[in-house]
Design brief:
The protein is α+β, with helices and mostly antiparallel strands. It is built from nine helices and 15 strands. The structure holds zinc ion (ZN) (2 copies).
């Protein structure tokens, strides 16, 4: 993907611009650049950019995410897909007979929530249930989400007469162009609240702090984002809930390092055990496990414990554990130790540092 231009500069507004400023800037640019009135291919390219920028910055949750992560927030922030809706909302009437505008619904889905959880290494490996506290919005209990004071109903919008749109007529080189834009009073719904609910002020939702139980599946990795659908904020006037996005941070482990679903660690082995062979205790996520080390094991030898890694996300299979032997070379700490090592060297003919012997040993390493 090419580098993403700054969305605010695409719309020509400052970072702190209000929602209204953003909407106004978008409409102005969209009118200039829309393919129906401007057949310059460059204008079309810019129109797409402007539309994508508006889609992100007009959605509070996405805008917040964009402000936090800039262009790093992933492809979801740039939904070029459903531009048709926006065309139609703003340019539906009178242009080339195109009249497929879908009427905006009175309700709108609630905002998504973004929350971070910190997990221990083991919790990420085996999964865990976390109780997540979130400041959210819940359906108003007084009006059951309708926004109307109990006993009252929605009435027809007094500004647009219930059509949901305001017609504009303008002259251009193509003749008279009629455009329709959503009514600002009723947000294009054609209806307004006659008596707003006294508890929620007509929003149909009220602030609430909620504890949301989230089951983190086994096998998640640091930086992963999980979506819990329907656990975000309640929408305006019963518009359905947004989603909850849980971003996962995993603490490092003192012994293991994770490579995908495999685990790696180092196992220090004293030289004498490495030479003589031994049964050693190897750490695993489920406690220690005894493993036989063959006599003469070399430093760097990797022991594989099948199925002792981390479970694959959503599957039962597990990765493996790879243990690298690190032979610890002793430094003699007493006369007796020194004498024994010297005796051993003598027996093995390793006493004399003659070059012929060294080259011979190197050859043996290269060509076994
Ligand atoms: Zn209410
Ligand atoms: Zn209206």
């Amino acid at each position: 993907m090419a580098s993403i231009p700054d969305l605010y500069s695409v719309l020509g507004v400052p970072r702190g611009a209000s929602d209204e400023d953003i909407r106004r800037a978008y409409r102005k640019l969209a009118r200039e650049l829309h393919p129906d009135v401007n057949d310059d291919p460059e204008a079309e390219r810019r129109f797409k950019q402007v539309t994508a920028a508006y889609q992100t910055l007009s959605d509070p949750a996405r805008r917040r995410q964009y402000d936090m992560f800039g262009g790093q927030a992933g492809p979801d922030l740039f939904p070029f897909g459903d531009m048709g809706d926006i065309f139609d909302v703003f340019f539906g009437g009178g242009l080339g007979g195109r009249r497929t505008r879908t009427r905006p619904t009175r309700t709108r889905r609630g905002e998504d929530l973004f929350i971070r959880v910190e997990l221990t290494f083991e919790e990420a490996a085996f999964g865990v249930r976390k109780e997540i506290r979130a400041d959210t919005l819940e359906e108003c209990t007084r009006c059951s989400g309708s926004g109307c004071e109990p006993g009252t109903h929605l009435s027809r919008c007094g500004r647009c007469g219930g059509t949901g749109e305001i017609q504009d007529v303008s002259r251009s080189v193509f003749g008279t162009v009629m455009t329709a834009r959503p009514c600002t009073r009723c947000q294009g719904t054609g209806e307004e609240i006659a008596a707003p609910c006294s508890r929620c002020g007509g929003e149909g939702r009220t602030p609430a702090e909620r504890t949301i139980p989230v089951d983190i599946p086994a096998g998640v990795t640091d930086g992963m984002e999980l979506r819990v659908s329907g656990e975000g904020r309640e929408g305006r006037r019963g518009g359905g809930t947004g989603d909850l996005y849980v971003s996962v941070r995993v603490a490092p482990h003192p012994v293991f390092e994770r490579r995908g679903q495999d685990l790696v660690c180092a196992l220090p082995v004293p030289m004498t055990q490495a030479a003589l062979g031994a049964e050693v205790q190897i750490p695993t996520l489920e406690g220690e496990e005894a493993v036989r080390i063959e006599p003469g094991v070399e430093s760097g030898t990797v022991i594989k414990l099948r199925g002792k890694g981390v479970p694959h996300l959503g599957r039962r299979a597990r990765g493996d554990l790879f243990v690298t032997v690190v032979v610890e070379t002793p430094r003699p700490e007493s006369k007796e130790e020194r004498a024994l090592l010297e005796r051993l060297a003598e027996l093995r003919g390793e006493r004399q540092q003659d070059n012929g012997g060294l080259i011979g040993r190197l050859r043996k390493l290269v060509k076994p």
